[in-house]
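Data deposition worksheet. Section B asks for the primary sequence of the deposited chain exactly as it was used as input, without tags or linkers unless they were present during the calculation. Section C holds the resulting structure in token form. Section D is free text for depositor observations; keep each observation to a single sentence. Incomplete worksheets are returned to the depositor.
Section A, Depositor: J.P.
Section B:
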Amino acid sequence: MADKRRRKSFFEDIFGDDSFEDIEDIINHIIENMGIDELPDHPFVYGFSVTHMPGEELSIREFGNISPYQEMEQFRHNIHIDERKPLIEVLETEDSVHVIAEVPGIEKEDIQLDATDSAVDLKASRDDRKYSEHIELPVKVNPESAEATYKNGVLEVIFKRIEPMEKTTINIK
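Section C:
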């Protein structure tokens, strides 16, 4: 009679046969140790985007509805998950600046944009989703030239630069 024992997979060797059966108990234990009595019905979201263009400083932008840098005591008693920070990208071309924001679950009628020549304030709210972000622009723009589109949760705002980049030939002496 052949031996019908099943060989353990690499995953089972590391984590065991039933490692995910108790995952909810583990999460609840972690939450209790953090001192949080009850979690809201909304998800916790945190992420960051890293951009490094040649000749420029590294840019790190956070998004989400919590910050991991809050003091633990403040975090325990003051979880703000009602307002989220959208994922933002700011791109430059020779004559324009593009601001792209991911704000899913919002309709275009729910978005408010206010702009100056150096910054954009984005606010959006629908039902239980709220987004808010102050975006500093890398160059001066004409806020009246703004053209905004919103499709499938992605907002794009295009501004014309006040002073377009002009290439100048430099003579070496």
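Section D:
The helical segments are 10-15, 23-34, 72-77.
The chain has one domain: 12-161.
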